[in-house]
Specification:
Elements lengths: L2 H5 L5 E3 L8 H9 L4 E4 L5 H14 L4 E6 L8 H16 L20 H10 L3 E5 L5 H9 L4 E5 L2 H9 L4 E5 L5 E2 L13 H8 L7 E4 L5 H9 L4 E4 L13 H8 L4 E4 L7 E4 L2 H6 L12 H15 L22 H14 L1 H6 L3
Parallel strand pairs: 1-9, 2-3, 3-4, 4-5, 5-6, 6-8, 8-9
Antiparallel strand pairs: 7-11, 10-11
The chain binds flavin mononucleotide.
């Protein structure tokens, strides 16, 4: 059965789950407009995750996706952590603050939080998706027994083949243009494939539906990917300016004036694409020490961002965004969905050529 029919939705337009950006109202509006809404719950504890899912279910009876981070947790390395704190000390000092003594994990992994699986089983969202890999087999078996489909983000063919083997019902194929964290299972192994290149590699080898993600801003781009074999497109950056998103006004302002993005691992400890600022242009220096690891570096970066902002300096703002940032449209969720749908329908392929 084709993906949209399986989900019971009309349009192949999926909101990307974005921790800190997606909200119940944004997710429900996208789903109500005929796409697939999403909640990025990677930074939530079980209580917060359940509250967000139930709030969304309260606002729509349409399906939506919930998403968690499945990174392999590593203990903090005290030597690396000390070196990273020493390296960032001068940046804190310019705001008259000492670098914090301790590095904290910004959040945990789904794999270490059994209560999150309980929340999924209790709330039964239409789909659960994972970023940075898949949870262990017993967890996947529990989802299978409960008939809850699961997807995973992939960045290369070998990850997609593994996802297929592990019983995923679709893969999210994340190209290098994507905003936010690169989804590789192993952060050191990045194929660097573009959204189109990845799709071209996956289509002949993967029988699962493929959801393309990365740099997609218009209905015409979505049609282009559908023609090449994608079942749907997942858009993140395009939805950040919506009033329904949780992004702050300051972040939205930064996005609206951005003229480029770049990938760096110095902010969180894993490679991620965001609007170019001091992190990419200065802190990610060729002679920097190794960062403190994910997600330990992230907590420190968030502290520096907050401190700088409190003193009116925005160069350290963590502003994840994809390559399409310069094509952003300042539209709220429903008008953006209407625009994307109208653009899709301009192409006769969408209305006549494709199978659902
Ligand atoms: C601000 C932001 C936060 C993100 N957070 C998540 C997340 O929590 N989980 C996830 O699977 N992907 C996350 N992503 C990646 C998206 O799922 C998706 O791959 C990406 O947004 C697609 O590229 P685009 O932003 O160019 O549309 C995030 C992306 C952005 C821009």
């Amino acid at each position: 059965m084709q993906l949209l029919t399986q989900l019971g939705i009309r349009y192949p337009i999926f909101l990307a789950p974005m921790a800190g950006v997606t909200t119940p109202v944004l997710a429900s509006q996208v789903s109500e407009a005929g796409g697939l809404g999403a909640l990025g719950l990677g930074a939530c504890d079980a209580y917060q995750a359940e509250a967000a899912i139930r709030a969304t279910q309260h606002q729509t009876s349409q399906p939506f996706q919930v998403n968690f981070f499945c990174h392999r947790s590593t203990p903090m390395d005290p030597v690396k952590s000390r070196a990273w704190r020493d390296y960032l000390a001068s940046y804190f000092a310019q705001f008259n603050q000492d670098v914090p003594n301790e590095l904290l994990a910004a959040y945990g992994s789904f794999n270490d939080t059994p209560a999150l699986l309980e929340v999924i089983l209790a709330t039964r969202p239409a789909v659960v998706s994972f970023h940075f890999g898949l949870p262990p087999k017993p967890c996947l078996q529990a989802l299978q027994r409960a008939n809850i489909p699961y997807w995973v983000s992939v960045t290369r063919l070998s990850e997609a083949l593994y996802a297929q083997e592990q019983g995923c019902s679709a893969v999210i194929a994340q190209g290098i243009e994507a905003g936010g964290h690169r989804a590789m299972f192993d952060p050191l192994c990045d194929s660097g494939l573009s959204t189109t290149e990845l799709l071209q590699q996956l289509v002949p080898r993967i029988t699962l539906p493929i959801i393309s993600a990365g740099g997609i801003m218009t209905g015409s781009q979505i049609n282009g990917l559908l023609k090449q074999g994608a079942s749907a497109a997942q858009l993140g950056t395009a939805f950040i300016p919506c009033k329904e998103s949780a992004a702050s006004d300051q972040l939205k302002q930064r996005l609206s004036t951005a003229n480029g993005t770049q990938i760096t691992d110095v902010i969180s400890g894993r490679p991620a694409r965001g609007v170019v600022g001091r992190w990419q242009q200065e802190i990610d220096s060729p002679i920097r020490p190794p960062h403190a690891g994910y997600p330990y570096s992230y907590a420190l970066a968030k502290q520096l961002d907050k401190l700088a902002c409190s003193q009116g300096v925005t160069d350290y703002t963590i502003c994840w965004a994809g390559c399409g940032v310069t094509a952003l449209r300042p539209l709220d969720a429903i008008p953006l969905m209407e625009t994307l749908i109208a653009e899709l329908q301009e192409d006769p392929y969408f209305t006549q050529g494709r199978s659902l």
